[in-house]
Amino acid sequence: MRSPTDQELVEKIRAGDQEAFALLIDRYGRGLYARIRRQVRSVPDVEDLLQEVFLTAYTRLGQLQEGNRLPGWLAAIADNHLRGWHRRRWVQQRWEELFAPGERAAQPVEEAADLQELKARVRLALQRLSQADQQVLVHHYFKGYSYLETAALLGLQVDTLRSRLQKGRKRLKKGVMLMAREREASQEFILSGEELQALRWAGAFVSQDVQRPVLQGVYLDVGGKIVATDGIRLFWWKAESLKSLPVPVLLGPWQGVEIPQATAATLTVGSQEAILRFPEGKTCAIPISEGPYVKYEQVIPPEGQIRAQVEAGLLLEAIEQLAFFLEDREPTEREGVQGYTPQVELHLSALGQTLSLVTTRDMGYTWQEGKRPPTGQADWTFLTSVSARIQGLEPDALFRMGLNHPYLRTAIQALGAGAGEHLDLHFTDPLQAVQFTAPAHPNRRTLQMPMRLQAG
User: Fold this and answer.
1) How far apart (Å, rounded) are the C-alpha atoms in residues 263 and 286?
2) Which domains does the chain have, with CATH numbers?
């Protein structure tokens, strides 16, 4: 009996002849098995792939125009499934590495790019998990907190945390493996003009220190938080448009990034860069850096027992008076000194209900050992005060804290409070950070570390 040609087989299969499809499998199965086996060692994987090849062929047979091209067509389907298998296999091999703490060896450029793509898929897969799973995975794996730290931050028992991490990893891995079969999609967010201004202010808080590259970027944290710090100041602003961000993203280095004025922009977060697109056609590309970011949540102190409430406009006016007075009196260099940093003492008086800024001729200088301020120059002191509502301070006590006054101005301006709006300054003690908040804008805050006070 004559064996049917490939064209005849295709026509019979299209007509619903199951025996014809079995004959096709028998005719090409061994060859395709050998083709797959050359690249895949695991026999179960080979068998699964072969089954996928024939299933795909059966569902797409209507696309084959000429039956005599069947062998090449089947080989192309097999090669396409092999490429997908290799991609999924790569994800499996890198999965534990992605979540393993510690240093990694330097990676080739191609492999590093692939790892970035995997991280992008993880970000998208994490978005599909429950809030509880997201919290434990993000804090422990993406932010780098220990078991104890994560449990404390989330109010969990350590055993409960370990159980959630184990279950969350399994769910996330399943989601990533499913997404390895899909075309990668970028995340898009529509930012308001106010949120674009927050990014500009965040850029003013990043570090310029090349030895601390992780601080040279702006950190987009889960829940929509925009964070930046140089180790002395910290900027924190919660953006409503970014609240669905599932995994932290470190944008930077930020040096040279200029965000034009606009009422809105689209932020697209990809695997290796983020792009801001503005209505008038302008774009701003920002690279994505490797994390993890510093554990900034641990340095944000609770609201201190001492609080000073002042009008934003009055406090900024006092700082401007100070800056104007010091404009010709603050040299950048002076013979016999190690360095100079602009400094002012912030004084709180519970008795007078005032906040004062005080500076002197010699404040801010670091003198070499055995050296003294130069003689022959008149001493001077500058003081400016504003009314303040002081709480938590004994009536006869005077609270003093040393601050970098240009940083003080930036910390207040970055809150975006109107001149007539109130600011709250929260203090714990002169050696801990002061926290600035605006009651009218609860989703914003800034912090500033103190400088060492002089004796007296």
Assistant:
1) 19
2) 6-95 (1.10.1740.10), 101-179 (1.10.10.10), 188-294 (3.10.150.10), 301-448 (3.10.150.10)
CA 261/CA 413 separation, integer angstroms? 17
Q: Report the run of H or E that residue 227 belongs to, with start and end.
A: strand 225-229
Question: Among 106-110, 134-138, 139-143, 349-353, which is the least confidently predicted range?
Answer: 106-110
The whole-number pLDDT of residue 111 equals 46
DSSP per residue, 368-420: PTT--PPSSS---EEEEEEE-EEESS-TT-EEEEEE-HHHHHHHHHTTT--TT
Residues making up the chain, counted from first to last: 456
Pair 405, 342: CB distance under 8 Å: yes
In angstroms, the CA 275 to CA 287 distance is 9
Measured between its terminal Cα atoms, the distance across the chain in Å is 112
Question: How does DSSP classify residue 140?
Answer: I
Coil, helix or strand at residue 252: coil
Partners of residue 366 on adjacent β-strands: 339
Q: How far apart are CA 419 and CA 415, in angstroms?
A: 11
pLDDT band at 412 (very low <50, low <70, confident <90, very high): very high
pLDDT > 70: percent of the chain: 82
Of the spans 62-76, 324-338, 380-394, which averages the highest pLDDT?
380-394
pLDDT (tens digit per residue) in 88-106: 665 555 544 555 544 444 4
Asked if residues 164 and 132 have their Cβ atoms less than 8 Å apart, the reply is yes
Joined together, the tokens standing for residue 281 give 């056609």
> Tell me, what's the pLDDT at 108?
47
pLDDT greater than 80 at residue 378? no
Backbone angles phi, psi at 297, to 5 degrees: -65, -25
